[in-house]
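Continuing the series of single-chain predictions for the mutant panel. This is the parent chain; the variants come on the following pages.
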Amino acid sequence: CGEYLLIMGTHRTYPYLFIRITLCFTNKQIEMELDKFEEFLSQGNMAKNTISAYLYAVKEFGSRHKVLNKRNLLVYKTYLIETYKPKTVNLRIQAMNKYLVFVGKTKLRLKSVKVQQRSYLENVISNADYIFLKNKLKGEDNLEWYFVVRFLAATGARVSELVQIKIEHVQAGYFDIYTKGGKIRRIYIPRTLRMETEKWLQTVNRTSGYLFLNRFGERITTRGISQQLKNHAVRYGLNEKVVYPHSFRHRYAKNFLEKFNDIALLADLMGHESIETTRIYLRRSSMEQQEIVDKVITW
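Parent structure:
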């Protein structure tokens, strides 16, 4: 193992004039490098969750290999392929490639693995179950969770975006999210949902602040939403596998295309960088495929 100096210059993307990189991964060295790497990632407008995932990957590599070289990187890639799903493998590879850029060893970058495109959507709540769930919640006057479900399914918001929505956004009718690369995605709140929400807020005498709160009056967490949705699924006899936050985002996309078949617009509304990502919603869910097969194939 050895050391070398990496001269960055004064380019705005790389604020360090000199960074001493040690090719040996000791525990202390990993901690030092991760701090610098985290600062480097933060300058690229990355989401906090993405930064955490990248740091985890580098730390994982360092725990398995003491030297950063091509051979160890390929061994690590093999380990990933044998252990994780392709999507996770590619995320870890992206993280290591970013780290290699950071330390000036771009020639060691790894190739991502191919992900086979699924021919169906998996574990998507049906429209019937969505209607059943929201009606049950409203019928029992559990309005806060009724609106959690409604907002997820009627705005297409990710759960990480949902917890950021404020009452002021409801009043405005939209919520702007700053995505990767400094781009802005606007989440629209439909008029009918907006009016219904404002009536509810009047009854609970709330005029500002985060829309969804926990029992302590603090902003609810993404984990809290996921767990509570699972609890409601059990309570109402629904399949737990289809009652989770992102399932309602899938439902939003499916319902949108059924009522207004404009996939380019849907891609914009969902914040997809590529329309190819949105094309999955043109496909049937696995449950829908099964129903069609059972009905059609009688021979």
